[in-house]
Amino acid sequence: MPDTPPIRVLIVDDHGVVRRGLRGFLDLLDDIEVVGEAENGRQAITEAAALTPDVILMDLLMPELDGLGAIAAIKAAQPEIEIVALTSFIEEEKVTTALEAGATGYLLKDADADEVASAVRAAHNGEVHLDPAVTRLLAQRMRARRTAPEPAEPLTERELEVLGLLGRGSSNKEIATALSITERTARTHVSNILGKLGLSSRTQAALYAVERGLVARA
Hints:
Blueprint: E1 7-12, H1 16-26, E2 32-38, H2 41-51, E3 55-59, H3 67-77, E4 82-87, H4 92-101, E5 105-108, H5 113-124, E6 129-130, H6 132-144, H7 157-167, H8 172-179, H9 183-197, H10 202-211
Helix pairs in contact: 2-3, 3-4, 7-9, 7-10, 8-9
């Protein structure tokens, strides 16, 4: 393994057995370190501020403050923290709200342990990782309605290519490789795209790309 610090993870779920199960698996991995746990949204906000984890695995249905509220609050205060929504159900409104609030991924609780680890690693790399069932739901939603706003300023052909890759969940490094540009240039394109579309996250840009059928351009 490369000599790099492990990915620091905070587990948030109101069920102790779920937290213990996730910790038990993640503790076996050399590149991931569980730094804390929380059992509701308010506690998650407090622990996130105290521990500054790299990634949070966030349950959505919890007492006191649910995961959606916690995601929005944490991303507003600490935008550098990546959050993967982890829940036992798929409900379109909650999926889209979680992603629009800033979640980098969305997994079902019955996901394989390896998939949870992959989601943590993807989130840490700034990539969008969605459960296949969630991807199908979003695709159906996008086909059913086209509501994304037009950009204030037209995207260039290169920006459309970058946006298409964002729709596939590509990181800046992967975008740079695919388009034979530097990672810094890829990062600049992503920033310009977010500005033109009036979006605040890569996840929102990925949803926009899917809605507008731009993923095929990549």
